[in-house]
Amino acid sequence: MQTPYLEIIHFLGNAGYYARTEKEKRILSNLTKKGFIQLKKGTKSVYQLTTRGENEVTKGKRPTKDYSDTEFLKHLQDAYRSLANPMKPLVRIPDVREKLYSIQVSDSFFDKKLLSFHDQGILTLQTAMSKTHAEDGGIPSDTGTGLFYYLTFEA
What we know:
single chain, alpha+beta, Arc Repressor Mutant, subunit A, 2 domains, four-stranded antiparallel β-sheet, 7 strands, globular
């Protein structure tokens, strides 16, 4: 799915990429729907890569690490605590994935571990509330019943 736009946005880094034409806006809107880019905070038309976009650009170039269940669970809980609050215990999976980008886990490792922890009752995964949410970085359920999009450690 790699496009020249992902390469350009990757190269520009934090500066982001400004959509100049209607055609570019359509292309970038499509990449946003697929979860590869997002609007830069505080802007209406400057885009930057998401973790998923960064992974797409650096496929095979970025080293990944495997963690034991205990190590990964600690990182996962830390990320969850930094995003959740008592009034909002459900956290978006793409946000957690973004938080864990620095520990260099692959998307497949991340997905596999979350499904495993869910099956063990360590955490709870909930399905997406809409198809749009699901396309934005959800995890296909292992039973084929939908896409998980939220997680919580609350029972």
